[in-house]
Amino acid sequence: PRFVRHFAMLLIPSPTETTLKVIFKSILRGFLSNFSRGISDLAELLVSASVEIYQRVSVDLLPTPAKSHYVFNLRDLSKCVQGMLQADPASMREPREMLRLFYHECLRVFHDRLINLE
């Protein structure tokens, strides 16, 4: 007790779903403003889907002793969005291409950690 009194305890709550959407939507909208109209209109849908996937994976795939790597955090959601920020406006012309990139990034971030089909 005497030693602990020299430290301050901080608790930073997890951001809400709305907060996550606002943060990542502003990032993705700004980036996609250089793309065609069809692609830039996808920003809100992509962010909503990303947040939904992140939340479901975090709740449904809890770590166990056999699956200790099933720890998902905000960094994983960020990686998913950052992967989409690597897209080149000159080579990506169709909304379908952005959706394929989103699918690819979600597979790399979330699916690659899974160790069985269950």
UniProtKB/TrEMBL annotation:
<dbReference type="GO" id="GO:0030286">
    <property type="term" value="C:dynein complex"/>
</dbReference>
<dbReference type="GO" id="GO:0051959">
    <property type="term" value="F:dynein light intermediate chain binding"/>
</dbReference>
<dbReference type="InterPro" id="IPR027417">
    <property type="entry name" value="P-loop_NTPase"/>
</dbReference>
<feature type="domain" description="Dynein 2 heavy chain 1 cytoplasmic ATPase lid">
    <location>
        <begin position="35"/>
        <end position="116"/>
    </location>
</feature>
<protein>
    <recommendedName>
        <fullName>Dynein 2 heavy chain 1 cytoplasmic ATPase lid domain-containing protein</fullName>
    </recommendedName>
</protein>
<dbReference type="GO" id="GO:0045505">
    <property type="term" value="F:dynein intermediate chain binding"/>
</dbReference>
<dbReference type="GO" id="GO:0007018">
    <property type="term" value="P:microtubule-based movement"/>
</dbReference>
<dbReference type="Pfam" id="PF22597">
    <property type="entry name" value="DYN_lid"/>
</dbReference>
<dbReference type="InterPro" id="IPR026983">
    <property type="entry name" value="DHC"/>
</dbReference>
<dbReference type="InterPro" id="IPR054354">
    <property type="entry name" value="DYNC2H1-like_lid"/>
</dbReference>
